[in-house]
Please model this.
Amino acid sequence: MEDTQKIDLLIESLKHPEKKVIRQAAERLIAMAPQVPELAPKLNRLLTITPDQYRWPIAYVLARISPPSPPCLEVLKETLGSGDSDIRWAAAVLLVRLGNADKGVTALLRDLLRTGTPTQRRMAVYCIRDSDQNQACVEALLDSLRDPDPLVRVASVTSLKLPLLPSFQNRGHTYFSIRRGPSFHTLCHGFYSEDTQQVEDPYKCFHRFCYKSS
Model:
């Protein structure tokens, strides 16, 4: 069978209902890409005309074989809100890899913390957690402690890399070290107040726990 026919069949397999078949087709396309220079342009064209539910595997392959275009990144961002956790995490792992190579991708994830659905925001938190965090990332995670969704708030507080926090001394507070342990988990559980039986503002809870007045 000619390579063109093989590629067309593999691309068609990206629409298969079984994830195993999709994964195998994607990996074969990625492996073939160095010998098929026309593959990326073809997938880019398909990305614009393919129904939404079939776009994520195309975007995944594209981002693995070439610098991702804005439409490709947009599809990967949308995929962070998938109802299938395997698909969400496949997109998340790829976005982390892309973000570590291109800080513009990390900036897109920070923007998603403000504009995405609750699931997208939570997955964006995890992506930033696993990325090479800079101060802009820490600021974004701190802001997410005020997210209206409790799962996003808990994801944010458990994702902050605390050694970066001393630079926040200019806010008029003195940082002191915290290790993950009983006290750290007390912070997470502290979002829920046994006294009032209400969820506390996690930003205030985190602030109270992590800092003392200078």
Remarks:
- Residues 85-101 form the longest helix (17 residues).
- Strands lie at 173-175, 192-193, 198-199, 211-213.
- The chain has a mean pLDDT of 81.
